[in-house]
Design brief:
Shape: globular
Radius of gyration: 18 Å
Helix content: 25-40%
Distance between the termini: 38 Å
Strand content: 15-25%
Structural class: alpha/beta
Order of helices and strands: EHEHEHEHEHEEEHHHEH
């Protein structure tokens, strides 16, 4: 199946304004993400943005970019606008602040849909390693069924342990943190973008709950390698330091 990776990128960010265009490494942050995506097996990689400055930056480094409407309520709606003009059967949504994403991680997403013909969406999770992480509402948790499909996503600690504390080491695939990477069957993505938010989705502020509320399946793959996203100035500083260290080792 043909796969397109679409990278939604906004200039505005409450915690790190102008994030896609940061370039302390000599490359735009969005360029790092784009180049990692190009190392995957995807047939096409596209940046989707509503900001002319990002368009100019992507064109500057030779990337493919599409200008979208500015009134999209979410990144999913933005990639759906671009996907309508593509023929690829699988659309991967890669956030524009994931410069350390591993290409093999991106390749796993369409494979999950190939393996589960009934699933409309594929996403990823990684084992939770601390009780603090399990309790943190900023860490989104996912519980799967025996077929690897999502039963529920929540900011609350799930599955709830009635007696005592969870044994995270003994059950690494039971207590999982959801990672915000998705692959959609194109036909379902276009349908999803027309659906109103679900009440559970609005309560948890988790868009993926709309898919479950529609009675559709989300296949969840488990990975151990997790690239750290860039949400804050401190995150970006750490990324620049790790990038420089890797560059020095390669020299």
């Amino acid at each position: 199946m043909q796969t397109a990776i679409i990278i939604p990128a906004r200039y505005a960010s409450s915690r790190l304004p102008g994030k896609p265009l940061l370039r302390a490494t000599g490359k735009y942050l969005i360029q790092h993400v784009y180049e990692q995506a190009c190392k995957s097996g995807a047939d096409v990689v596209i940046v989707a943005t509503d900001d002319e400055r990002i368009v100019e930056a992507v064109e500057d480094f030779g990337g493919r970019v599409v200008m979208t409407r500015s009134d999209h309520p979410s990144g999913t709606d933005r990639i759906a606008e671009v996907a309508r003009k593509l023929s690829a059967e699988i659309i991967v949504n890669l956030q524009g602040d994931e410069p350390l994403i591993h290409p093999a991680t991106l390749d796993l997403l369409p494979k999950l849909l190939e393996q589960d013909a009934a699933a409309d969406v594929a996403t990823l999770a990684t084992p939770i390693t601390s009780l603090e992480q399990w309790r943190d509402p900023n860490c989104v948790k996912v519980v799967r069924d025996r077929n690897g499909r999502a039963l529920y996503f929540s900011r609350s600690p799930i599955p709830h342990v009635r007696d005592g504390e969870p044994d995270l080491a003994a059950n690494p695939n039971l207590f999982l943190q959801h990672l915000g990477l998705y692959a959609y069957r194109r036909s379902f993505l276009l349908e999803l973008a027309t659906m109103p938010p679900d009440p559970q989705e609005q309560l948890e502020k988790l868009e993926q709950l709309r898919v479950l509320a529609l009675g559709r399946f989300i296949q969840v793959g488990v990975v151990t390698h997790v690239g750290r996203g860039v949400d804050t100035p401190e995150d970006y500083r750490r990324f620049v330091e790790s990038w420089q260290a890797a560059k020095n080792r390669a020299a």
